[in-house]
Amino acid sequence: MAEQSASDFGGAIDPQIFKQVQDDIDEDIKVRDEIRGLLKSLDKQERSIQSVLSRVHAVPASALPTLLASAKPSFDQQREILKELGTVASKYPYYKYNGLWSKEIQNASYGIVLAGWLGAFTPADEKPAEGRLMTIAEVGEQLGVRVNVKDIDVFHLTLEEYLHSLVTLIEELARLAVNSVTLGDYQRPMLISRFVKELHAGFQLLNLKNDSLRRRSDSIKYNVKKIEDVVYDLALRKLVSSSTAQPEAEK
Amino acid sequence: MPPAGSKRPHPGGGHRGPKAHPHPAAQTHGHQPDSNTAGVPAVTGPYIAMFTEFRNELDEHHDRRERVIKASRDITAASKKIIFTLQRLRPTALSVRTLPQNITAEIHTHESRVQQLLAALLPDLQGINARRYVKQYSPALQEYLEAVGFRHYLVSGEVVSFEMAGWYVSGLNADAVLSVEKSGSSGDKPPESDVEMVDAVAEGGEGEGKEGGEIPAKEEEKLHGITLTREDYVLAMFDMTGEMMRFAITSIATTPLAQLLPSTVADASSSDAKNTGGGKSTPQTLLQDLRVLRMAFESLGLGNTPFGREAEKKLEVTRQSVGKVEYAFYGMVVRGSERPEGWVADAGAAGEE
């Protein structure tokens, strides 16, 4: 260990001492570039999924099946890229490079939970319907990645990333509640209201630290309020039957 | 009641679906599962069970993180004390490759603390979590390595190798590390501690089970040690140059002028290195070594990674440190002749430590 040959300088420090360091730095940069390349194509698919799904604000519920079907090719490609990313990423300790893809995998998870809420990915024995929460396991299944791994060191979707995607879902649903009314759909805001409140109750159980998830989940209550306002407006004007509005509001 | 009236989402009321488990039986994590909801009416809803599980998991994560942060803070503090202790050395007191006993004894106290804290970290850093809290503990590792590296340099005149650095911070080698320390300070042993140090390190590195602690070995055998990253190692070595600079400045101020004159500086590189095997940290060798380190750092292609950016900043500090020592030499050469012959800044205190 202490065998570094003395240099020709007055001191005994070998100028070559950091040679191995350079190799490591170069390798690290190479890996980061490779991962970034994959994230770029992943991001492209995610944006394409988002742009398809965002049409939900402008089309009636009856058009949903077609809309969801048109997002399928992007979902398929996204899964392919994630598979590749998983192969590359799993060669290294998970927590070495996880900061690189955290945003992209949150977006990927969000695409799934939104599509799932709209009725995609329904189990074969159930009738497709709006308002379903994709569990973290289901999201992982659709993305083709492992979830919340604790025992082995591989690429996966973390619990926090999944929760982030749920916060984004809530934000999107608040917008959808408003736009559904514009489209003349007065029932969907009721559904959204109940769903978001239930999810909010879940988030309130969490002891979050002062991190980004904490800040984002703090914003859920504003979305709850926004949705409640929509429900209130509808109920006040008797646009929804009180039997529909009341139980939702009571929740 | 108007629907918008109830701002607080269902305080306990309604919707007792079949899936709602206000107190899920599946609380196997055994870690105050319901402490949070205890005072509140049971919350129910379809996602409560799921989120209760999430909560337990996040709590475990936050607890681990907290523990790592606390230990890291303490490691940093103890490591700083080691560095301060080393800075109290006077070069004249630094006979080749041995630290005075009072210094090693003092360091031993702080280093036992560091090793104890490192070992205590291990349970939280197993498996996939090995790197999960790197951000939390890497400043502590860097600080400790700065201390280890500085001591290693003072004693041997060399930069501690990555492998040896990793051995020090693994958290598994407490006993071996500390016995190396003791052998330096123990009065019974001959002061050839450098040889012993190398031997002990080599042994410890291979068979920490043998020597590395008979008492904790059984318990910790299953635990993996902390893996030092190349990044932390390099950043620690950057920081070490700052300590070398401080030490060099003190040395210059306390070295008799005759030994700093240009003729001696020129000679020092050859004669000094030969006489002492490069182990003695005279101001001249310190300056030469700082220059070599600066050059070695500068020749690294750092890249635009988080590490690269941090290293870039530290490189600038290293440049300044080298500059300060160079300027100190310059000052001695230019103004030194104005000193009375034989005058030394704190000759009285020089032999003290």
UniProtKB/TrEMBL annotation, chain A:
Belongs to the translin family. The keyword Cytoplasm applies. GO terms for biological process: RNA metabolic process. Keywords: Cytoplasm, DNA-binding, Nucleus, RNA-binding. Its main location: cytoplasm. It holds the Pfam family Translin. It comes from the Eukaryota. The lineage of its organism: Eukaryota, Fungi, Dikarya, Ascomycota, Pezizomycotina. One of its GO terms (molecular function) is RNA binding. This is Translin. It comes from Orbilia brochopaga. It is found in: Cytoplasm; Nucleus. GO terms for cellular component: cytoplasm; nucleus.
TrEMBL record, chain B:
Residues 1-42 are annotated as: Disordered. SUPFAM superfamilies: Translin. Pfam families: Translin. Belongs to the translin family. Its main location: cytoplasm. It comes from the Eukaryota. Keywords: Cytoplasm, Nucleus. Residues 29-38 have a biased composition (Polar residues). This is Translin. It comes from Orbilia brochopaga. PANTHER family: TRANSLIN AND TRANSLIN ASSOCIATED PROTEIN X (PTHR10741). The lineage of its organism: Eukaryota, Fungi, Dikarya, Ascomycota, Pezizomycotina. GO terms for molecular function: sequence-specific DNA binding. GO terms for cellular component: cytoplasm; nucleus. It is found in: Cytoplasm; Nucleus. InterPro entries: Translin_C, Translin_fam, Translin_N, Translin_sf.
